[in-house]
Description:
By secondary structure, the chain is of the alpha+beta class. The chain has a single domain, classed as Lrp/AsnC effector binding domain/regulation of amino acid metabolism (RAM) domain (Alpha-Beta Plaits). It contains three helices and four strands; from the N terminus they run βαββαβα. The protein has a four-stranded antiparallel β-sheet with strand order 2-3-1-4. Strand 2 and strand 3 form a beta hairpin. 24% of the residues are buried. The mean pLDDT is 90.
Amino acid sequence: MITAVVFVKADVASIPQVAEAIADLEGVSEVYSVTGQIDLIAMVRVRNHDDIAEVVADRLNKVPGVLSTETHIAFRTYSRHDLEAAFAVGVE
């Protein structure tokens, strides 16, 4: 599984609609509305690198109200949730 974190600048007047449209895209697992220089963060989880281009360049960038994106590809995950889940396998 490949994870990409996509920073999205959106038209301020339509942030909720942009967020919902992005969240509906196949390959997007979550969308967060955030403060700061960007408006939204989209988490893209796909099977291979080519799928990132399809999701981000071919679909997400074309959502009405998206002004710009910046994509960061994760190469390693550190998560307490993932570690706890791994150790909980087979535990009742």
